[in-house]
Amino acid sequence: MKLTxxxxxxxxxxxxxxxxxxxxxxxxxxxTDAALLFIGAEGKxxxxxxxxxxxxxxxxxxxxxxRRLTIKNLWLPFKLLQSLAKAFFxxxxxxxxxxxxxxxxASGPTLQMAQLLGVPTLLQEQNSFPGKTNQLLAxxxxxxxxxxxxxxxxxxxxxIYLTGNPVRSxxxxxLSRLKNEAAAYFDLDATKPTIFVMGGSLxxxxxxxxxxxxxxxxxxxxIQILWQCGKSYEKEMLQLQExxxxxxxxxxxxxxxxxxxxxxxxxxxxxxxxxxxxxxxVAKPVILVPSPNVAEDHQTKNALALVDKLAAILVTDANAQxxxxxxxxxxxxxxAQQKSLSAAIKTxxxxxxxxxxxxxxxxHIRS
Length: 367
Description:
Elements: E1 5-9, H1 14-30, E2 35-41, H2 46-52, E3 56-60, H3 76-94, E4 98-101, H4 107-116, E5 121-125, H5 132-137, E6 143-146, E7 160-162, H6 179-186, E8 194-198, H7 205-218, E9 224-228, H8 234-238, E10 248-251, H9 257-263, E11 266-269, H10 273-282, E12 286-288, H11 298-307, E13 313-314, H12 320-332, H13 335-346, H14 353-363
């Protein structure tokens, strides 16, 4: 049995887009003749990233609810109605046998219309705490692929499949063999401890501020810092370049994440679902600083799923300025704790997520 006509909907961030592309690639790997269509949100990064990966995408005019009081929220009902109508006609025309929702603005109206039209739907829930949209869509979804155990409190138990989140394929390989190559690539020393700071493709203001304040204390040590500051902070952060010592490297975006992971002794990261899934496979000691600027504070819940199993260290966003540096330095100098964290986080890895998700899809396609 093969998947032949599938719509994948969602996006907004790399945490939604990269899993969606991994699912699409696995469908194509199993059936090169499969017809795939993405449905995203106009103006969001999927409208650029999906075509770059070689797939067709249709954009909906859907927008998110602004947390602050703004006139933009008045347009939300009209944008939603427009998106529902457009999704309806796209689905009717494409005639998919299955619609997969990966989260993000567009997945709501797309899956709602698919369910109305009687097309089987599957949710790929990446977080340990699902958003309200997915909880509503789950009532009529055929299956929900999750990345964390204990999701029965949100979804019907018979629909849940513990698969994990799809990740980039190179993470399934042994990254330790790349350490010398990584040191040369980043112009750092493979023999020195390296702190890798990653705040996502757009960056994290808290991490950048905490690291900036810490530079006078780290810059003269043998500890190296590999720092992805994010495109949103490119101008202000790269102004630091002239004052940096050779053991501190700042990049707005790191293309070779495999090399960054390979070189890292300790990793500082936000707690987005995709990042957490990747970190379980990388199996390096990690300090998580969850973003407070997300729906239902789901990053904190993602982080606690690891911290409760002694697989990561948590520093809150509010305390990062004071606690992040001393916590990190203590971990860098504590090899026993590094080994303990690495061993614990490795047990949480689900390396076959993409393949397992497609196996679940095959169980629920429309004949």
